[in-house]
Amino acid sequence: MISARVLPVVAATHRQWRLPVPATLALVPALAVLSAFWLLPLVHLISLGLQRHEGHDTAYWQVLSSAQYLSSLAQTCALAIAVTAAALLIGAVVGCFLARQRFFGRSALVALLTFPLAFPGVVVGFLVILLGGRQGLAASLFGQHWVFAYSLIGLFIGYLYFSIPRVILTVMAACETLDASLEEAARSLGAKPWQVVLDVIVPGLAPALVSCGAICFATAMGAFGTAFTLGTQLNVTPVAIYNTFTNYANFAMAAALSVLLGAITWIALLLARRLIRQTGANL
């Protein structure tokens, strides 16, 4: 039997989780839009991948048993990981420098470095072609052996082009919240510059780096405009979904690839959130 002391606690908890009537009414339009334009299409997308045609296996099993599609998923994941690592390394160094230093033209430099965020993927792909295409700058200076725009190297450069600005902005904002007295204390105790970076700055920036890395990974996993501009022969999953959907009208296979791509990205974002909680708790 519930004691008299427990009942008030249960009642208070119940009142805490109850939403006011105006707040509930305000959520109705958002829930309607979410259901109509996200949940229902997502359910339909998942169900398409479960369909069987002419006695064959479901599209999910066909993807998981196909060397071509597994290779596409593996290349997409490897490319996204490489882009994320390079963007974090370059963007963290540049972001810390810009956050700590004050010099003439700093604002113009920040604006220039973050300008790629205004470009769509098609424009980024076009810029990569101008750099490493058959008529690009590298080919005109060093010969046709330096044509790389239509390969995974060109796609890596394109993805890196719009990933670095995200890291720079995130790191600059995170550096503003770091306690400079901790760095001074470490130096006063005899810590070398690299020890200050590894023991003070990097742990302080860890939550921001993890969250920004997750965004860069998710963006690289699903980016299509740049890959499509550089060529539809690239073996990455977004291009494979486009080819399967438009060239072969295989809706079930395209749906299965989309769901698997989204599941991998969702798992990465979930792990990033848990890692952020752990790093935040350890600080």
Tell me what the structure shows.
With 283 residues, the protein is mainly alpha-helical. The protein has two domains: 20-49; 59-282, MetI-like (MetI-like fold), CATH 1.10.3720. Helix content is 77%, strand content 0%. It has 13 helices and no strands. Helix 2 (21-49) crosses helix 13 (251-282) and helix 4 (67-100) runs parallel beside helix 8. The longest helix has 34 residues, at 67-100. It is globular. The relative contact order is 0.12.
CATH structural fold name of the largest domain: MetI-like fold
> How many domain regions?
2
* Contiguous runs where pLDDT drops below 50 for at least 5 residues: 9-13
Mean pLDDT score: 85
Helix content: over 70%
The N- and C-terminal alpha carbons lie at a distance of 43 Å
Beta content comes to under 5%
Oligomer: single chain
Q: CATH H level of the largest domain: which superfamily? A: MetI-like
Q: How many extended strands? A: 0
Output the CATH class name of the largest domain: Mainly Alpha
Tag the structure with descriptive keywords:
283 residues; mainly alpha; MetI-like fold; 0% strand
